[in-house]
Every structure is written in structure tokens, then in C-alpha cells.
Amino acid sequence: MKKLLNELKGHLMSGISYMLPLIIGSSLVIAIPKIIGLTMGFTSLDAYADAGGLAHILYLIEQVGWTGIGLINTILAGFIAYSIADKPGIGAGFIGGAVAANTQAGFLGAVIAGFTAGYVAKWCKEKIRLPQLLHQAMPLVIDRKWMGLFNCHFNRCSRYRISGSAACGF
After folding, report:
1. DSSP 22-86
2. What's the first-to-final CA gap in the chain, in angstroms?
3. Residue 143 above 90 pLDDT?
4. Which of 80, 93, 140, 163 could staple 167 via S-S, CB 3.0–4.6 A?
5. Measured distance CA(163)–CA(170) in Å, rounded
6. pLDDT at residue 168, rounded to an integer
7. How far apart are CA 145 and CA 158, in angstroms?
């Protein structure tokens, strides 16, 4: 049991370590226009969304940072799945994270989506056997496309059932 918990912790920490540069970079992109705006006497840049000039440019830069902050759950789920299943899990993890963000499931929903996508992709990679003729094409076509599509479909269906209602309650 302790070995399993350490493995799960390692995958979670891997996802968080990939997520941290996004948080730091996006926060800086938000903070710099705010600081420049404060030095110019603007307490909020929201009033300049439809205006022109430097204040509007600062507002747009700030919105780029908020877009990056919005990707946090997507990146977390994608890289948790990548940590578990390598390349076949990354696409399904990103889609599961996007579903978690769109269903307001938040951080817990992204964690559930990442683990689900990763372990389903790992299972597909280990259990689905193909003829010898397709082994050369497997890394390029089968792993990334077909297993990814199967995994995305499974992840999407299970996420709407599980996290869309359960994790949103947290």
C-alpha cells in the first residue's frame, strides 16, 4: 500500500512540477502590467478594456496572463498522465484537464482526470497487441492516435459521469 501511495505521489508531484513554470510565468505577466498601471495611477485595468492607448495595451497583456492561469488544470492533468503512461497519455490528460476546467471540477477534477487518463493509456499500451506488421508504425500512429483517441473518449465519458457531478461538490 505504501509503495502504491509513493507511486501516486510521484506522479502527482511530476504534474505539479510541470505546472509551476506556468503559474510563475503567468503571474509575472499579470503582475507587470498591474505594477506599471499602478505607477500611472490606474487602480484597475478592467476599465480600459475598450479604451485605447497604453492602458489598453496593459489590459491586453494582463489578459494573456489570465489565459495562462486558466490553463493550470489542463497542464496538471496532462503531465500527470504523461508521468504514468508517457506519450500515449499526454493528449488524453490534456483533454481530461480541459474537461475538468470546463465543468468547474477544479484542481481535484484535474487530478482525477490525469490519473484516469494515465492509467487507461498505460493499460492500452500494455494489453492491446498488434500484428508484427504494424509494430514499426506503432510509435507514430497507433500509440499517439488510436490509443489516444480511445483514451480520450474513455476519459471524457468517465469525467462527465464522475467529476462533473462529484468533484464539483468539493
Report:
1. HHHHHHHHHHHHHHHHHHTT-S-SGGGSS--SHHHHHHHHHHHHHHHHHTHHHHHHHHHHHHHHS
2. 26
3. no
4. 163
5. 10
6. 43
7. 20
Name residue, grid cell 490606474. Answer: 42
Half-sphere exposure of 9 (CA within 13 A, CB side): 6
Query: Which tops the pLDDT comparison, 87 or 64?
Result: 64
User: DSSP 3-state assignment of 170?
Assistant: coil
The DSSP symbol for 1 reads -
Q: How many residues does the chain have?
A: 170
Report DSSP letters for 105-149, one per residue. -HHHHHHHHHHHHHHHHHHHHHH----GGGTTTIIIIIIIIIHHH
Q: Considering the entire predicted model, what is its pTM?
A: 0.76
Q: Are 91 and 74 in contact (CB under 8 A)?
A: no
Average confidence score pLDDT of the chain: 83
Q: Please give the Cα distance from 11 to 46 (Å, whole number).
A: 38
CA distances from 43 to 30, 36, 59, 72, 121 (A): 14, 10, 12, 26, 48
Residue 46: the pLDDT is 82
